[in-house]
Structure formats: C-alpha cells, structure tokens
Amino acid sequence: MATDEAGRPRVVVLGAGFGGMEAVRALARAPAEVILVDRRNHHLFQPLLYQVATAALSPAEIAWPIRHVFRREKNIRVVMARALSVDLAARRVKTTGGEVAYDQLIVATGAAHSYFGKPEWEAFAPGLKTLEDATAIRRRVLSAFEKAECAPVGEQARLLTFVIVGGGPTGVEMAGAVAELARDALKRDFRRIDPRFARVLLLEAGPRILPTFPEHLAAYAQRVLQAMQVEVRTGAKVIDCDANGVALEDGRIEAETLIWAAGVAASEVAAELPCEHDRAGRAKVTPDLSLPGHPEVFVIGDAAAVTDAKGAPVPGIAPAAKQQGKYVARVIRARLEGRSAPPPFRYRHAGDLATIGRSAAIVKFDRLTLKGFVGWVFWSIAHVYFLIGLRNRIVVALEWSWSWITRQRAARLIVAEGPPPSGL
Amino acid sequence: MATDEAGRPRVVVLGAGFGGMEAVRALARAPAEVILVDRRNHHLFQPLLYQVATAALSPAEIAWPIRHVFRREKNIRVVMARALSVDLAARRVKTTGGEVAYDQLIVATGAAHSYFGKPEWEAFAPGLKTLEDATAIRRRVLSAFEKAECAPVGEQARLLTFVIVGGGPTGVEMAGAVAELARDALKRDFRRIDPRFARVLLLEAGPRILPTFPEHLAAYAQRVLQAMQVEVRTGAKVIDCDANGVALEDGRIEAETLIWAAGVAASEVAAELPCEHDRAGRAKVTPDLSLPGHPEVFVIGDAAAVTDAKGAPVPGIAPAAKQQGKYVARVIRARLEGRSAPPPFRYRHAGDLATIGRSAAIVKFDRLTLKGFVGWVFWSIAHVYFLIGLRNRIVVALEWSWSWITRQRAARLIVAEGPPPSGL
Fold this sequence. Notes:
With 424 residues, chain A is of the alpha/beta class. The first copy, chain A, has helices spanning 18-26, 49-53, 66-69, 131-150, 153-159, 169-185, 215-227, 268-271, 318-336, 372-386, 390-406, and strands spanning 10-14, 33-38, 42-44, 63-65, 76-80, 83-87, 92-95, 98-101, 104-107, 111-113, 161-165, 199-204, 230-234, 238-242, 245-248, 251-254, 257-260, 264-266, 283-284, 290-291, 294-299, 304-305, 352-357, 360-365, 368-371.
C-alpha cells in the first residue's frame, strides 16, 4: 500500500484539466492522500484558448495556478512533473519528477492534436491545446500582417491568406476571430496593405460544419461566417501541408498561416495503457470508468472512450470530463469509506454552444436553441461563469466589454517562439 | 534625397522605446514621411517590467502595438525589422527588412545588459529588458519553488535562494517583489517547503544602494527591504556566476536563481557609429544631440551619452529619453519648415522614484520627498498615468487594487522558454 505517514491510502491523479481538477476537488478532505501531477503549473480554460490565439485575451486570464486552487486542502499535494508511464502491476507511475506509488489512480491526461498519421504537418499547421500553442499561433497570425506590409505586392496575397482546418467549434471560433481581427481591429494600422481584404478559409472534410449541432444552427453559423467573408468549404479534405500552403484533393491554396483544428488523439500515457483503445487511442473503460481488470485505475475525459447508456460515444467536451471526474471521485470515496459502489456512470448532455464572432453565437440546450445576439450573451455569461476565480471572471468580462465597444484587441503581442519546457 | 512620392523628405527613427515614440509623436503631421523601425511590434513600458517578472502583471498590460498608436497619422509608417547598421555616407540604414534611405535619422535603439566583459554570465543571471526576459525570469523564479517542493531536503536551501545583482531601482524593486511573492502570495501553496523562508539577497558593488537618491531615502529603502527579510549587501562585487550560484570577493552564495540588474551597454547600432563613445558604448553627441560632423543624424536615450548644462551626465531614465525625443523632433521640424534651430538641448530633471513593495516607495521630486505609503500611492498613480492607453491604465489599476487587497499575484504562469525571434 502506498500509504502516507498518517496511514491514509494514496490517490494519484494525472492531469489537471477539467476532469482531473474536478476529481481532486471532490476528493478534498477525503480520508486519503491525493497527489495531482501535471506538467504545467496551471489549469487552463481551453474553451477560450482561441481568444488568446487571436489577441483578445492574455494567457493569465484563462489560467490559474493549480496549487493555489487547492492551497487550503491539506490532503492534496500538487506535483509539477510530466507523467511518463503507468506500471499497473507495481501500482506506480513514472514521472519526470520520480516514481509515485498509488492505491487508486485517475488517468486524466487529455488529448493532443492528431494529424492522421502525418505528424510532420504540425510544423506548418499548429494546433491549439496549450498556452504556448496559443501564443505561437498569435505570433504567426500577427506576423503575417507585418510581413505582408513589407513584402513585394506579388507576395501579399499568400501572406494574407489564413486557412483553418476543421469545422468543429474550435475551427469555427478561430475562423470568426481571425476574420474579425483583420476586418476590425487591424483595419487602420497598415499603410501598404488593407487587412480587411485578408482571405480567411475554413476547411471541413465532412459534408457540413459543426456536425454535433442541429442542422439549422450549423447553417446559421455558416451564413454568419460568410457574411464576415470567411470562405467555408465543406468536403474539403487536406492531403498535404507545407510552408507555403495546403493541398486539397481538388487543388492547392497558397497561404502563410495554417491552423489545425481537425483531430485529436489521446495522450501517450493513456494510449499506452495495456487495454483496448478506440481509433483515437482513447482507453476503453468499464461502466464505472475503470480499466478492465484494474478496478483501481480510472481513465476519464479525453483520455477515455466512454459510451453513454444508449451506446453512443460521450463527446470530448469540458462538461463530460467534469462529470466523469466527479463520478470517479464518488466511486473512490465510497471505497475509502467502505460504502457500496455508486451505480454506473451516466452522462447527462447539457448542451452545445459555439460563438462565431462579435454578437453571434449558437446555443443548443435541451429544447432551448438560441442564436445571434441572444445566443452570444448566453455564451459570454456561461464562459465567464465557468472561469476559475472571481478575479479572472471580472477581468475577462471587462476585456470583452472593452473589445465589444472599441472593436480592439487587448493582447496584440508578438513574443518569442520556443519549445515547450523540458524536464519539469 | 530619400523623398517619397509626394516629394517629402524622409525621417527614419530606429527604436520605439520612450525616446523614439516621443520623437515620432512630435513628428506627426510634419511635412515629412516618418518611418519608425523596431524589431518588436510593441512599445514596452519598461519601468513595470519587473512586475511581469514577478507575476503581478501580464505582458499585454504594459505593452502596446506600435502601429496602433500611430494608426491615424498618415505620414507615419511602422516597420517591424531589426536595425543592423547605419551607412552615414550613403545615408542608408540596413535592416532585416531591407535597406532604408533617410534624410534625417534618429537613433533611439536603447541599451542591453552589460556583464562587464563576461557575456557568458547572461545564461545564469538573465537581465530584464524585454517581455521575453520578464517571462523567462518569471519562469525561473516560479520553477525554483516547484523544484524545491520535489527536491531532497538537502537541496532545498539552494533552490530557495534568490540573488539579485545590482542595487539600483530595478534591483531594489525586483528584490522587494520576489520577497513579497515568497512571503505572501505563495505562502500556503506548498506542502514540503515553506516559501516564507526563501532567502532573497540584493548585492550592490558600491557603498550603498540607490546611489541616485538622497542618502536618507536610500537608507529608508534598505530598512524596508530588511524588514521584508531581504539581505542587502553593499560592497559586494560579483566575480563569477554559474548554474549553482554566484562568487563574491569574500565567498560564494549557492543559489538556483540569479537576476542581473547591474549594468547596461548601448545597443550595437549605436556602439558601432563612427564617433566617440563613453565606456558603456553610448555615442557622444553635440549640444543639439546630433552626431559630430553629421547634423542629419541624432542619437537619443540610452544610446547617447548626453551631458547637461553643468557637464553632468543625463541619467538613462524614461523622462530623459522622452525629453530628448521631443527636442530632436523640434530641431527636425524647424529644419523642415525653414525656421531657425532651437537652442541646445537642456535636460530638466523631474525626479526619481522607486518602489520597494506593498505600500512602500521613495520619491524625490525637486524639494518634495515622500516615502512609505504616501510615496507608494504617488508612485502608483504616476506609473498608471504614464501607461499608454486608457484600457491599460484601467486594467493595471484594477490588478494592483486586487493584489493589494488579496496579496495574490495575477499571472503565476510558467510558460515555455525560447530565444528571441530571429529574422523579423
């Protein structure tokens, strides 16, 4: 047993995303030592990451130091280290900060981008998962305008072409935000180019954008994007990416800036667990979200392939991860306290929402569907509400009000490029 | 002549610091084409950079996109490129974005750190000039606590030792801010270490800290620092820096984190101008701030060695650079408009101010001297006032109020390391 000095069993949680944070929160004051391992020092509110990538918000406004969140919970320890692998037999996790033994383990390591077997595309078409991704995309987008201002006329069109690959919520939000940046925030700032004529394309391989939304809302979103002069192309399958653009089955698009919002794959730690996986590398779990044959190991969030009561896959969204985190904590608490196990996990789909731009969003909650300005207000309030910390809520609400009135962007910074931190 | 299509002469300004920005602002609507060249896309409010380095403010709160500031001035063009060298004979500037011809040139390229002939120290003891420097120092400071939390007990003392080299205003402000971070913001967040026992040292080679301030104010600052358990050592000359600490003439200090606030040297472009320079590489200029023998080339701010009417050197501070920028713009406007030249540059010293920490600052303005809480309020209002843009003023005022009430830091992010951008 991996008990601590007080003889309490130890629960180790890998990953401080929505699922991991919720599980740890629900284990506060449980009769166990809880160790939360994350390679970052901050929890990130990923749904607003595209706003950092498009200069609307600053990184600190959507991130919060993990250990600060749990500072008052003395049974919770936060370790900044990268989880490397899990030894199920020995009940130990290997991390960059050493080995950690566990009695119960929650794997909540999330997902990374998937380039469908072409990892070399990442250098040309970065995705959006971390703060470093977001500031890197921000640098690329803003630098494209800077380069175009100095470039010979013949090169300006390519420099001012922005291609977003993937028509899910992230792709739609990025396309809308890039278009607004060009048409509004930057419109007066250059002398040799007119940013309003920047070309923004949204490519979706499937038959329509926003496949998880009802068709009429997706069609509305497409009309709003087109009104913002975003070229929406469905059935557009990317067959190659390089430094100068993207190749489709029916032709090439020359572009300086490519952004990847198309596919995700489970993190390595989850993909390497000795169990069945789905095509995206997510671990297939039992109805109580534990690993088959290993009731002491749970996998949740984007690391897990979970199906609901009807056999449909649970979507990889924040509310689903949070419900799973809370559920797993209940299972563990029941065990710790010698109570009987709760019934199998049941996913309750609250709804879907996506914003397209200034004053336009789509919302589908049960029988409630909203769009346009009302949807956008709902979207804004919901996102501010779910941020961690009163300070972040106030600051983000202020930043949005300011941007809405002035049509400006608060964080138009081009800062240095760099690899993610190694070691820690 | 480097005239544009309208036949207007061209003024090129290198550097968008305090001096360059002020010069360009004063040349708005002048009968000339003005080209402002900077390797960054933002003007940086350097006096508050230490607050980014110590997690109190976000980068975007003290930076503003240069071209946005001048968006309405059609005679002003902003070019994001690095100035490489000046060809005085051909009246051309070489930049990473190509060559630019000029009729009048203002060199306002500022200063970099000086390691007194030991550039290899920079890797161990980074200085604080750019946003990248600030986020790099923030990462090092916050990571030191993270490492200490996981380290064997014997290594914790070294990991929790922070050495700031240089007892000028920047060093004093950094020392106070690091001490506050450890003693207040982080105090509850760790389990295996107590951040309140972190050791913070301020090393000054000279006989006292804050040599530009009256002695009684410097003594007060030292007492405040000591009350915050900062060890202030004067007469402490650094003879070596490495990855594990710093060597002084009378012994060694083992420390994970070194921060350099000791010396500056003029930027390369200024240091390579064919003229006399002072020991820091600053170009010695004539009484109208032009280069001897080149009345069409001006050097201002930290790039120039300027003496006041009494022969004393003008200090390398923001108000001095701004006065010089404004003066040089007046000289150029007089030439453009065929008026007689203004009298030689005269520096008016407004005063000195430095903050030491929560509710303590020192202010010396003419006969007015302030310290303690009153000084701190004065310091805060002055700094908010001088920020560019109403939005930044509001956000910084709010951040400070919030931090003051909660004793928390808003931007405790550890994000990736990286070299400054190349090319652009």
